[in-house]
Prior knowledge:
The complex is a heterodimer of chains A (220) and B (277).
Chain A: E1 3-13, E2 19-29, E3 33-37, H1 44-51, E4 59-64, E5 67-68, H2 74-81, E6 84-87, H3 98-108, H4 113-127, H5 142-154, E7 160-164, H6 172-187, E8 192-196, E9 208-213, E10 216-217
Parallel strand pairs in A: 3-8, 3-9, 6-7, 7-8
Antiparallel strand pairs in A: 1-2, 1-4, 4-5, 9-10
Helix pairs in contact in A: 3-4, 4-5, 5-6
Chain B: H1 3-13, H2 17-42, E1 60-64, H3 70-81, E2 86-93, H4 94-97, E3 104-110, H5 116-124, E4 129-134, H6 146-177, H7 179-188, H8 192-229, H9 240-272
Antiparallel strand pairs in B: 1-3, 1-4, 2-3
Helix pairs in contact in B: 1-8, 2-6, 2-8, 2-9, 6-9, 8-9
Amino acid sequence: MSVMIQVSELNFSTEEGIKVLEDVHLRVDQGEMAFLVGPQAAGKSVLLGLLAARIRPQSGQLLVCGRNVARLTRRKAAEFRRRIGFLPQDFTPLPKTVLENVTFKLRALGNFREQAEEKALAALDQVGLTSKLNESGDELEPVDRVRLGLAIALCNEPLLLLCDEPFLGLDEEGTEAIASLLIQLHSHGLTALIATRGPLPASLSGYRRISLIDGKVVGG
Amino acid sequence: MSPGVFIFRELLGAVRGKAAGLILGMIGLLFAFLAIFSCFFVLGTSDGSATGVSSSAKAVTCYISPKLSVDEVQGLYRGILARDDVAAVTYVFAAEISPDRPGGAFLVRPTDSGDVNALVEALRTLSGVTEVNAGGVTGEEIHLSTPIRIGLLIGLLVTGLASLLVGRIAFLELLRNFSPELNLLHLSGTPDWSVQAPVVWLGIAAGVVASLILIVVLYALHASALSGAAPAAAAGLLHQGRVLTAALLSLLLGIIMGGLCGGLGAGLLSSRFPDYS
């Protein structure tokens, strides 16, 4: 099975010299869904940011989707991000309809209106939001916001999905709904690395978990 | 539709509230800047009262028949220029002096020692000449006094810098309005240029709007000047050529200044909204 993420000897410090990640080694295979679990400020978001070429690496090796992220130029990093679906922790929908939220990304990437709508509808169907196409994105319930974030992340068929705290702020029912959705997406072949601080729902207990504590990988 | 055009449209949608007011302010300052710039072309007196140009150097306007052939016009031109009491001759279209008037005209500048009245009488006797008037101005004869030039230069500098400063603040406010979209664009891997270019285009659009308003004002003033309402200190308004030059150069300068404002805005994208840093 080919490797989707290969991280070795990764270190990262803030400008003030505070160590955020220390000698991190990590591997995620293609078609695998793994969970990066750790308390708040453990370095999960920084690690995802590094993997998605949102933060420039300082040292260590990061191979993601066959690309050495540490060597990407600014322009190449932007190109690389088109191959990654990313759901940020602070995801806030645009004050547009659900459909427009997804087509915004597709049109900005050069898709024509019809093509963008076709792809957006497919992505919204995947996450179960087709009944709310014309609702305003910023008025959705938390669980539907996560669904919308996932639709935006997945609409251009990325090779890898990175999610930062998709269960944060959700009630038990919402958490279970998103967990089921992730399982369903994984069953269709999606590779994903999902960061979460809380305990995983029971339905996800069979998946690999990588513990990150104080910037160090403890298990996995 | 290219990503740049799509993002430009989305960016226009973010022009609201404080950002809209600041962008209007930027257009106003650009208009003031261009208006001061065009003053160099239209301000000035033709009678020398403000410049010390002697009245003997006033031009004589010599209208010629529209029925003359090119060779005959050339012959007349050479004949007038060869006179001892003539310093320079400029051919203009008669409509530039008087709208709807056909044919051409010579603006004849006598030498300092020349007798204008004798020259007028002599020109009236020439074959093909339909009318001769003492008076009239040539482009070269409109002069601005040094204090006015200095004042205009200071005004140009102040309004230029102010428009750049207000432009920068306006774009900062606009990009704050647009920051949710910017976050999504960065996450999606949109190339830098497709976000920066629309910001520059918006600056250019603001410059073009300011220029177009100025061009409308210039031509309205030109029309009123031709109907006899021109103030003595704005003799350049009588000249279609000067007004056209002022209009075209203002449009060019408006595009450049607007582009600079937009460039400052695009620069803010990397300094205030960093990506992959």
